[in-house]
Amino acid sequence: MDIDTLDDEGGGGEEGAPAWMATFSDLATLLLTFFVLLLSFANMDVTEFKEMMGSVREAFGVQFRIRGDFEALSDSPISLGETPPGDLVEVVRSDAEQARELAEALRERGLLDQVEVTPDREGVSVRVRDAVLFDTGEATLRSEGAAFLCELGEVIAGELGVDGVIVEGHTDDRPIHTERFPTNWELSTARATNVLRHLLSEARVDATRLSASGFADTRPLSPNVDDTSRAANRRVEFVFRRRTEHVDGDAAPEE
User: Fold this and answer.
1) What is the pTM of this model?
2) Which terminus of the chain has fewer Cβ atoms in its 10 Å neighbourhood, N or C?
């Protein structure tokens, strides 16, 4: 039978794929290439990549080392940092802990009911009402106040975890006009100074650990609206300043 005759009668082979399939294949290939490029430009986790490559090398039995390369001793990635030799490490005792210790020391000496122990802007404050130490409008210590300070001085002398103690004098807003105290500034400063002098002379507190300040009525605990609030504002505060201890690190190697 003639081959030409078979082709005319449709007995030959089947026709090829439709023409649109070639265009679709090209489009799919281009999309795949596009996404591969996006992946290559994305951020790569270097650590995970190295671990993966290490697994591949082990699987194929390829192991080699390049001299000078760094090898981690840990299986998990860690962050390494250097601390310069001789650097200082700060160790700070919390104000709440110091306040508890001071309150316990004052309780042992029977003084806690005459004071108020609270965390302060600079450490811990021990507040004493002026009536415990002085008569109204005076800066001379009462006998009861002198005895109180002797007991308090032992607490101050034994408190080694502070940078020092500031004796602060405070008054209410009522003005004072006397020959000795023209204003509340003189009164508050004189009271703080007399307390400090008594701690030095009678309680034998180290002078390098004490200082005195007078603030008149500039730092009230509450608004001066009645006798109760004014009585609370008339006070002497002992501010135990927090200490930051410095522990030297390893000494720097000598050159």
Assistant:
1) 0.59
2) C
